[in-house]
Structures are given as structure tokens and as C-alpha cells.
Amino acid sequence: ATPTGIVPGLLAEGLTDAEFENMFFLFAVAGNETLRNGIPGALLTLLQHRDQLADLRRDTEARLDTAVDELLRYWPPVMQFRRTATCDVTLGGRAIRAGDKVVVYHASANRDETVFPDPDRLDLTRSPNDHVSFGFGPHYCLGAHLAKTQMRAMLGQVLTRMPRIRPDGDPVRLTSNFQNGLKHLPVRWD
């Protein structure tokens, strides 16, 4: 029996079965890839900035939220996203026609000197921090809150349970023009 208001072949408010399956796949993959790249990237960044790591350890509870945003700005898990314009528009003085491909470079936008003072410097106390690692506006990542919660939980545990964590070899970066990730991050702790 079909529930009242649901058309056979459509789910809830007009999603077809195929659209629902595509959205489910997108949600599953998006959260996996970004966290798999964001957490090790954040840890590597902290290990490369030992002074800020030490400061964060001294006041983890109060500073972790702000630190996670800065780590996401500094090491965005996704470097770029491509979109297709749906209508003619002028952006930054340039005409974009419907159907044109437009690329948003998160890594570049997060280092924009007109938005971030001293953008190439890691500052775990940076506030406000309007990074675009999760996009912005109507395309803001649906899982951003969950991703930040998971990063806080993981980094919080590393900071408290591994007080002497340190590099134990060279990191190996993922070769990709889309994902900003690591294949290996050798560390040691006692």
C-alpha cells in the first residue's frame, strides 16, 4: 500500500527512487572522504606548528571549536568544486552564460587576503573565520556540523591521550586535484 500523498515511484516530496539513491550515495561518500582527509590534515598541520599545538593543549576545551575552523581553513579537505551555471549572470565583472562551468577553489578562497588578515599564517584563535571549506549560501554542506563535531572529538582525544605525539617519517600526500588528503601520516607517541 502506498502511504497517502506519496506517488508510486516517488519518495516523499517528489524525489524519484534514482534521485534518492544518488543523494544517499553522495551523503555517504562526502562525509567519508572529507573527514578521512580533514582529520589527518588537521593533525599534520598541528604537528608542523608545535607552538600552536602546545597552546591548544593548555586550553583544549575552550579553544577547540575555533581551532577546528582554522584547521579547516588552513587545510581544506576539498580543494575545489565545479558547478554549472543555470542562468546568465555577471560575477566579478565577468559574464557567465547558462551552461558554463565555474570552479570554486576553496584552497584559494580560504587564503584571500581581503577576508583573512595574514592568510598564510595558522592562527588557532582566528575569529571571525568565514572559511569556505564547506561551501557557502545555498550550497553550504549539509554535514558541516557533524563533520566539525567529529573533528573536535577526534582531535580532542589525540590532544588528551597522546601528549607526546610527534612525526615519525615523512607524510605521503594523496595525488588529486579535488581532495586535499594524505595517504600516510606516520606518527609516534609514548
Shape: globular
- Measured distance between first and last alpha carbons: 60 Å
CATH architecture: Orthogonal Bundle
Radius of gyration: 20 Å
> What portion of residues belong to β-strands?
15-25%
What is the CATH superfamily label? Cytochrome P450
CATH class: Mainly Alpha
Query: What is the overall pLDDT average?
Result: 89
Count of alpha/pi helices? 5
Taking strands numbered 1, 2, ... along the chain, how are they ordered across the largest sheet?
1-2
Total separate domains: 1
Number of strands: 10
What sequence of helices (H) and strands (E) makes up the elements? EEHHHEEEEHHEEEE
Kindly identify the CATH topology: Cytochrome p450
Low-confidence spans? 1-7
Work out the helicity level.
40-55%
Structural class: alpha+beta
Sheet of most strands: 2 strands, antiparallel
Q: Oligomerization state of this entry?
A: single chain
